[in-house]
Amino acid sequence: MMAWLSINFHALAATLRKLAGSPLSSFFSICVIGIALSLPTGIFVLLQNIETLSGNFTGSPQISLFLSKDAGSAEVSEIEKRLKGNPGVDHFRFVPKEEALGEFRKDAEFSDVVTSLSQNPLPDAFVVFARENSAKNLENLHQEMLKWPKVAHVQLDSNWARKLDSFLKLGHVATSILAVLLGFALIFITFNTIRLQILTQKDEIEVAKLIGATNTFIRRPFLYLGALQGLAGGIAAWGIIAAGLHFMNGAIQELAELYSTRFILANLGIRESLLLFFLSACLGWLGAWLSVSRHLWQLDSGSQ
Amino acid sequence: MISFQAVGKRYPGGFDALKNITFSIERGEMVFIAGHSGAGKSTLLKLVAAIERPTSGSILVRDQNLGRMKRSAVPYLRRNFGLVFQDHKLLFNRTVFENVFLPLQIGAFDPREAGSRVRAALDKVGLLGREHAYPVELSGGEQQRLCIARAIVNRPAILIADEPTGNLDAEYSGIIMDMFKSFNQVGVTLLVSTHDEAMLRKLRPRVITLHQGELAP
Description:
- The structure holds two protein chains of two kinds.
- Chain A has two domains: 2-57 and 162-302, no CATH class; 62-157, Alpha-Beta Plaits, CATH 3.30.70.
- Helices cover 75% and strands 8% of the residues of chain A.
- Chain A contains ten helices and four strands.
- A four-stranded antiparallel beta sheet of chain A has the order 2-3-1-4.
- In chain A, helix 2 crosses helix 9 (215-258).
- By secondary structure, chain B is α/β, with parallel strands linked by helices.
- Chain B is built from seven helices and ten strands.
- Chain B has a six-stranded mixed beta sheet with strand order 6-7-8-3-9-10, with helices on both faces.
- In chain B, helix 3 packs across helix 4, helix 3 (96-106) runs parallel beside helix 5 and helix 4 packs across helix 5.
- The longest helix of chain B has 16 residues, at 170-185.
- The two termini of chain B are 23 Å apart.
């Protein structure tokens, strides 16, 4: 156990010495990995933020039910009765045409237009909140309401949210593809930097093999190097995203104030951050493993 | 300990470095391999240390058939050997101490004991005061002794040395041969290649002479 610890400790120390021994090239490698990783991760963060933002709206999809203009109070109470009796409806609000017009009148932009009108062009309407927000339930309600008397138009206000949802899904797929591609890039980058490191230590590897080092022993410090480099790249990516969000939030706050809402982009949560670090370390490890194994394989096949 | 049975080694390209070599070496023997350069001395030592594999015949080292040995088993076989190379193969970015420490590190030796082992090995070759020096600071003879210290730190059963006195003057050669004799006296099997006739006349060991890849009568 002591010996095993000592071996790993020595390997780790040697790795850190190597990283510190060529600070500039280590820094550049880490930056390249960081930039490569920050791309898919950054897009993922943005998508997550859009999701939380749209979640605020999609929470309770509304159905707007417009009556035809010749509908009288009898028809209104008939519709009211049907809405009350419908199990798919949670609650609803009647918006008489006078109230709708009043809303417009309050709006500075429309008040001139409204006052110039000789009669109210708006119909009576109901705003209906569904009990269940599943697409199927909403669609059923929509179809049923269309069949009711004196109903001119039924608008499903959740349509845009559903469209956004499918766009987000598309975005997730695209990000996943990008993440896989750049994950490969990370492996290749590590493969190459480790290969260069191996070339500078060819003699050490040769001597170690001659005096009885197993391939595992020879691989170990390079695996540490690959994993550490990957991990540092992951941390760099996290830093790049944090800095990017910081600058974007400044601009977004101004924008949000114009819309009189409050919204800031959130960074990766702890679990996602740890996952990012873990994955980047694993990919670095894999790249290093491939690199050393290839070198060892060449050594072995060359000595026969 | 070591036995060759009709061993041949043909390199890619058709050159026969060794042809039909048969001999055996018992535990605790001191055997010299003599012959002109190009006679196959280095190839023979490489075959013993499983650095190369024979193309015909069989080699047994400690009852293991090297020709059929799995690649993954080779490192453990090598830990029975101390190897002294003609070109030393020292690591120039490591100190004298670290160079000798390397085999212990590879063999997962208890780190608390390793330090005294390394110093004992350096003491035997007369380099105890130079632990913190780097190999470039050493003379050719000292580098050879450092290489020997690295070979013996593991207390190997078999010491294999390829032209250990090749580039050294007579005085240094004498010192190194005395060392080898003392290792042999504590039971280490020695296999040394040399083209130094004077050395052979002085030590009168058992000699295997190679001539153009074959055993000379």
